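anyone seen this seq b4? input:
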Amino acid sequence: MIEAEVHQQLLAFLRGQGQSYWAHHLTMARLVARALRVDRSVLIQTGTHQGQYRLSYLLPVLMWSGPVVLVVPEADQHRLLQIDLPRLKPQLTTHKPILVSDHWPDPDYQGIVVTTPQNWLRDRLEHLGKFPAEIPTVIDGADDLEDWTREVMTRSIHPQDWDHLMAALPNERKKLLNLRSQLTHSLYQHPQNPYNCYPLEAEEQGQLIQLGDRYAQQTLPGDWAEFLTCCESPQDLLWGTLNREKGQFSLHWAPWRWPRFWPGSGRSSRRCSWGKPWILPPMRRSIANAWAWGN
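predicted toks r here
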């Protein structure tokens, strides 16, 4: 069984390194290997610092006979690709192809695709079909999954976006400057709080809806068209954040309720995540290798 093979290979690797390693590498590696073999979900929380557990899911993934999606934050991909994987590869007799991409390359591809949480979440939440649902998915750092999801689902307008809008609509520059000034004045009337975040009032939201109606037939730059369309929903969240030092503001929209759909729900899929159990809703036939800061 793959569990025994993974245990032997990882044990030999750790002994050959002559270093002191995380005590639970072998246990975690067997759990990941079993999840792959029996096609089940697993969520693993570790008490070690970031990255020390990584060998425990990489070796089973490399030894697994089928394809795998590996979801890793961009900040951690360099270490994964340049240090961790090259150290393990000489231990193996077979070499699995590894590709960094925002989509699955080919239906017949049997290797590993490394992607960012943002790419993977957009694909799942927006039903883009870039990653096949039936392929095992390993999520490294699932403690941050909630924050990643919020980031992907939030639409924002930043100070430079106003400049882009005025450049795209030069004849409307004066009206846009007036609107920006009105919103700046209105937002700065809110009592200051430690977060510098303020929900938009009905009047402020109405100004944005009017802006969307006025330029509905225009091609707007960046995220303007989508943001203004989102502003029309009275039930969703719409707020501003202030940079008081620069006298600037940003606008943000997010849905009040997240979509019912979640990767692995109602589909044949396997998913692997590292993190606290409450972060992930129930998933069917998913693998999850998850880590969390010790707490």
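Strands lie at 42-44, 68-71, 98-100, 112-115, 137-139, 155-157, 197-199, 237-243, 248-254, 271-274. The chain has a mean pLDDT of 83. kinda curious what u guys think
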